[in-house]
Specification:
alpha/beta; six-stranded mixed β-sheet; four-stranded antiparallel β-sheet; homodimer
């Protein structure tokens, strides 16, 4: 039986199994879902056991467990270490979902559910690609799987797990499907990822909420102060004003920038898809450059005072913001977090006190476009999608890529099958049924070419 | 029996009755409390009936009912119209209350509960002052009570009620207890109140929440944009930048400002009470001036993006803020709301769309310091507190004062017995037991002097 035939005749079952997994709300950020996160891990372990790995286990960590599985085919064959994550982003705002986030549904050829694309759907392609190769007796590489449950909260326990298990994780290449392709017409391979510093700022004014009539105008309002501080973090050219922020940023050569801008991209389609009239960003760079090779700063959340129905004339005691920065080579997450903290404290007026905490961070990474792994991935895409994949730089972060390089000295191939429009981290996250099916086929092809 | 004796021997019962009223969560802003708001009105009506008014009723409006009661003593005696409100502010943030907001408790000689001071506690002093005068046969003025249930949401139905009931509400003076005294040592009478424009701004960027890695830096983030807009609403001298905002502001004469600044006020005590290192405000004005005679702008609430536990890398579709301005004579609430809306739309960048709605407003007011009513109030305070009250300008708003002047051509006397430190509109709102008791006595004294 041919690979495509096997996949096609089993795709409905593959999808049903994925749906079962998507129904488990494995939200790692929210402690109320702790048991569900474990349940999602147990589910995956059982699925690995069903498809005939040598060994599958839950590796306990200080937080959520890591699912590990392996199959040794031939000592002389290369070993692929597949990394992914089974935890998902929180589903809120819930009222914007058309169908509930943990009740997967297919509409317009897309699977709608939290985690459909990021990353349960993409991880499950690897599970089913393995099943396909195993049932058809086509396993050509040794395979190891490491699927964690803390990616969405900064992979806090992964670094020590990797450091403590170097022998177990020994491999020739890392394979990750947690990124997007340019479009269904243009397969692509991500060769650069941004890093991340995620900060939380708390501004405190008076020791209690006050009546805005009695005190308004006579003392600093922490919300107004926070807004002023946030506003000052960008200058009029869209550049970030934190001293030293750009010091380590690698400027690409004109030829590199030119190559990057050759990727198919329509500003009109982009604006239409988002329903915005104008784009915005750092002066002197294109949209592809702004998300691919330039660092950025965004408020991810802000709150303070009365946010309920109607009007409440309060002058709040506190204001909060979650602010994250995407980093590019050779910025360091730790260093940028420090610069941010120092700057925020420096610009805070004496009328308030400021507390800054650093959530998780991650380092930017660039993966090689030469060598056997990239070539195998390119061949695999071409054989299934009919087009040579385009190398791209992605705006998102997968901190594990830098970690693997540092701890295991392993390069990574990023074979992502999502689309930017998949609404990951947002309401109505989805993943194309076609992407899911062709992704499985492409993964099988990668194994074949990588063993050649 | 003397007035003081009657009050002292009944004060525990007075307080128990008030507690029963405070237990009814009459939050007018939140539709979930609709039945409780009515229950609080019914409670008050029953209390009026118990103390022997001629007539008490609930007057239905488009929103919450108005409690009306009256007692005619003598056609030739003057008529006092007491105004107050039985609705309360929302109690959140709930976790900052030491005892639950709707389970009143006395601690350190203070009654802690939502509404203890604003305004149930102060309204109830009038009810019990009436009882005292009635039982002791000392009623010297005709009395009308109008206690509404929508003060905290802008008294939307009061204006038409007043317009439609001019005959019923005919009186010689309005008496309101909904303000504060300078301190327990310094009785004061409020002679100026600020007006209010309360606005809500919604900034929309992309049509959905986005992944901040994939899109961050390439499109405008509505939270960052909103912060920038809010930051620009004040200049470096603390002045509001909305064009035309100060055009109608009445500048006080140097002598008037001097008189205002003679009120006892300690900046050190003020800062210590609020635990702030520095005050803030419009350059060239003192703290008393900033809250008394100058208009201001404060963010009362802001929200957007992810505000839960942990980190979520979202680039939100929308950001919101509730922004209110306190107004002084002769600014008009409607005009300022229009100027605000126009300015916000003018400064919104083309990368976002902006929606502005006006919540309730109210006009600023100044009450006369000459004439019989002010004199009677001053004498009443002096007889109970042993000191002549100081006329003050308050920062808060009681829009009804301007409304009464306009519709009924009646002046108002503001006999407030709260303290600025009573945490109205905030967690742990409270009202001194002593203030409650002496307030009742002072109100009785006012009736006596006003009839003289």
């Amino acid at each position: 039986m041919m690979v495509k035939e096997y996949i096609d005749s089993n795709i409905q079952r593959f999808q049903d199994e994925l749906f079962e997994w998507l129904r488990i709300p494995s939200v790692s950020a929210d402690s109320r879902y702790k048991q569900d996160v474990r349940k999602a891990a147990e589910f995956l372990k059982a699925k690995f056991q069903e498809i005939g790995v040598d060994h599958a286990e839950l590796c306990e960590t200080g937080g959520h467990p890591i699912v590990y599985a392996e199959k040794k085919v031939n000592p002389s064959a290369p070993t692929i270490l597949v990394y992914g994550h089974y935890d998902v982003q929180p589903p809120d705002p819930l009222d914007l979902w058309i169908s509930p986030p943990f009740e997967p549904q297919v509409r317009d050829g897309k699977i709608f559910a939290r985690g459909a694309c990021d990353d349960k759907g993409q991880v499950y392609m690897h599970v089913k690609a393995f099943e396909t190769m195993s049932r058809l007796n086509r396993l050509s590489c040794n395979v190891k799987f490491m699927v964690e449950g803390e990616e969405e909260v900064g992979s806090e326990n992964l670094a020590s797990f990797v450091r403590d298990n170097k022998e177990k994780l020994k491999a020739d290449i890392i394979l990750i499907s947690d990124t997007a392709m340019i479009s269904l017409d243009h397969p692509s391979i991500t060769v650069g990822l941004r890093g991340l510093s995620y900060m939380e700022v708390e501004v405190t004014g008076p020791n209690r909420d006050l009546h805005s009539g009695v005190y308004g105008g006579a003392i600093a309002n922490p919300v107004n102060v926070l807004c002023r501080m946030i506003a000052s973090l960008h200058d009029d050219k869209g550049r970030i004003t934190i001293p030293g922020f750009y010091d380590k940023v690698v400027e690409l050569k004109p030829a590199e920038r030119e190559a990057l801008n050759r990727a198919p991209f329509s500003l009109e389609t982009y604006k239409r898809d988002l329903q915005i009239n104008e784009i915005w960003g750092e002066e002197g760079y294109t949209t592809l450059e702004r998300t691919g090779i330039r660092p950025t700063l965004d408020v991810n959340g802000i709150w303070g005072g009365y946010t309920g129905e109607g009007a409440k004339t309060v002058l709040p005691s506190k204001a909060h913001a979650k602010i994250s920065m995407r980093l590019v080579p050779n910025q360091s997450s730790e260093e940028i977090s420090k610069l941010f903290t120092k700057h925020i404290k420096a610009i805070a007026p004496p009328t308030v006190s400021v507390n800054v905490i650093a959530h998780h961070g991650g380092e930017p990474a660039v993966t090689p476009t030469e060598g056997k792994a990239f070539a195998a991935a390119a061949k695999a895409f071409e054989s299934v999608w009919g087009k040579r994949p385009i190398p791209t730089r992605d705006g998102g972060s997968i901190p594990i890529v830098a970690l693997f390089k540092k701890e295991l000295n392993l390069d990574t191939v990023l074979m992502g099958f999502g689309l930017d429009s998949d609404a990951i981290h947002a309401p109505n996250e989805h993943f194309g049924v076609k992407n899911f099916r062709m992704g499985i086929e492409t993964i099988v092809a990668f194994h074949k070419h990588y063993a050649e």
